[in-house]
Design goal:
22% helix, globular, alpha+beta, 8-stranded antiparallel β-sheet
C-alpha cells in the first residue's frame, strides 16, 4: 500500500497542463554531420573508466527560442559553444530560469534508451508556470532530448561505464529592466558523459544535518527545479565538505525539525518493510528517480509512506539512502545531527541496492519495462 498520495495527484493533474501546450511541437532540424570525426567512429577517445561527474564538451546542443506569443520556434542543433545574452536578460538579472536532468544509456546490444523524459517535460512545464515562462510541449521536449542524444551518440559511454547526462535549460533570455517576465525565452539542451556524481564514487555518503541554512520555505519555489534553488545551498555545502562530510541534509524552515532533502537529491528511510520519504508540500522537488523508486518498492512488497519525518527518526532507521538523476541511488553511511553521529550498517543485501538493481535493469533493458518508462532512440 502507499500512504500520502498528494504528490502523485499533482502529477496526474499536470498532464492537463501538458496537453494545453501540445500545439507548440515542432520537429527539430536534422543534425549536420560533424566535420572533425568520421561517421563510423562509435566512441569518443576519452578515458571511459574514470569519467566522474564534471563538464566535458561534446559536439552538439539543441536551441530554440519563443516568439512574442510564447510559442517556441522550430529548434535546431548547433555546435556546442557559448551563447549570447543581453546584459539585461531576465535570467541574469532576476534568476528567471529552470533546468532539468535526464540520461541516455547504451545497452549491451547497442541500443540507446532514455528514462522517463516525459516526466522531465511535465516538471518543466509546472516550473515554467510558477516562474511565468512559456514552456516547450512534452513532444517538443522529448524530441529535443532525442536529437541531442543522437547528435552526441559517440559520447554515450559503453555499457557499464556510465551514461550521457542530458541537461535541458529554459531561461528568460530576453532583455528586461524592470521586474517582469522576460519577453523571450530560450530552450536549450546540452549533454555530457558522466560516471559517479560524488567524488567517493559508490562509497556510502556521510551527511550533515544543517540547522542554520534552509534550502526552501513555504510559498517559495523549492518544489520546482528553478535555478534559484541551488546557489543558496553552496554555503552550507562548502561548510559541510570542509568538515569532511559528503553533503547536507536540510530541515524545514518553519519548525526546523522535519527533514526535507539533500542539496541535490531526495532522501528515503527504511524501517523494517516500510519505506518513508518526506512529503512534497512545495518545498521538496519531486524527483523522477524518487517516483520510480517508490513504484519499485511497491512492486517488491514494501509499504511506501510520504509523510512528515522528524530528524529524530534518523536514529532508529535501519537504512537511509538518497536518490536523483545525477546520483542514482546512493546509500548513506552516517548522518550527524546535533553533534551526534548516527551510523548505518552497509551490506550487499541492503534494501536500496535491491531497488537500484531493479532500476538500472529497467533503464538498460535487462529487466522488462512494465510501465513504459523507457524510450528507445531510433
Amino acid at each position: 500500500m502507499i500512504r500520502g498520495v498528494a504528490s502523485f495527484r499533482k502529477l496526474f493533474q499536470s498532464s492537463a497542463l501538458s496537453s494545453k501546450v501540445a500545439a507548440r511541437y515542432y520537429t527539430a532540424q536534422a543534425a549536420v554531420q560533424p566535420a572533425n570525426y568520421s561517421s563510423d567512429e562509435e566512441f569518443a577517445d576519452i578515458d571511459w573508466d574514470n569519467l566522474g561527474f564534471h563538464l566535458m564538451q561534446t559536439d552538439y546542443m539543441y536551441v530554440t527560442k519563443s516568439s512574442e506569443d510564447g510559442i517556441f520556434k522550430q529548434g535546431q542543433l548547433n555546435r556546442y559553444g557559448n551563447i549570447q545574452l543581453s546584459p539585461s536578460a531576465g535570467v541574469l538579472n532576476y534568476g528567471q530560469g529552470l533546468f532539468e536532468g535526464t540520461k541516455a544509456y547504451r545497452t549491451e546490444d547497442g541500443r540507446v534508451f532514455l528514462f522517463r523524459p516525459q516526466q522531465n517535460a511535465i516538471r518543466m512545464q509546472i516550473g515554467a508556470e510558477r516562474m511565468c515562462m512559456p514552456a516547450p510541449s512534452t513532444d517538443q521536449f522529448v524530441e529535443a532530448v532525442k536529437q541531442t542524444a543522437l547528435a552526441n551518440k559517440r559520447w554515450i559511454p559503453p555499457p557499464g561505464k556510465g551514461s550521457l547526462y542530458i541537461r535541458p535549460l529554459l531561461i528568460g533570455s530576453g532583455p528586461i529592466l524592470g521586474l517582469a517576465p522576460a519577453p523571450e525565452c530560450t530552450f536549450l539542451v546540452y549533454a555530457c558523459p558522466v560516471g559517479n556524481y560524488f567524488k567517493q564514487g559508490t562509497a556510502p555518503l556521510n551527511l550533515y544535518v544543517e540547522e542554520d541554512f534552509h534550502r526552501a520555505s513555504r510559498g517559495g519555489a523549492g518544489g520546482v527545479k528553478s535555478i534559484t534553488n541551488y546557489a543558496p545551498v553552496l554555503k552550507a555545502m562548502k561548510n559541510a565538505k570542509a568538515k569532511g562530510y559528503s553533503d547536507v541534509l536540510y530541515l524545514d524552515a518553519v519548525n526546523k525539525k522535519y527533514i526535507e532533502e539533500v542539496s541535490s537529491c531526495n532522501i528515503f528511510l527504511v524501517k523494517g518493510n516500510v519505506l518513508s520519504t518526506p512529503i512534497a508540500r512545495g518545498t521538496i522537488l519531486e524527483g523522477i528517480t524518487r517516483k520510480s523508486i517508490m513504484d519499485i518498492a511497491l512492486d517488491l512488497g514494501y509499504t511506501v509512506e510520504e509523510r512528515l519525518i522528524e530528524a529524530d527518526e534518523l536514529i532508529s532507521a535501519d537504512e537511509v539512502f538518497c536518490t536523483g538523476t545525477a546520483v542514482g541511488v546512493a546509500p548513506v553511511g552516517s548522518i550527524t545531527y546535533k553533534g551526534q553521529r548516527i551510523e548505518y550498517k552497509i551490506s550487499s543485501d541492503q534494501t536500496c541496492k535491491k531497488f537500484y538493481s531493479r532500476l538500472v535493469g529497467i533503464q538498460k533493458g535487462v529487466i522488462k519495462d512494465e510501465r513504459d518508462w523507457v524510450v528507445e532512440i531510433e
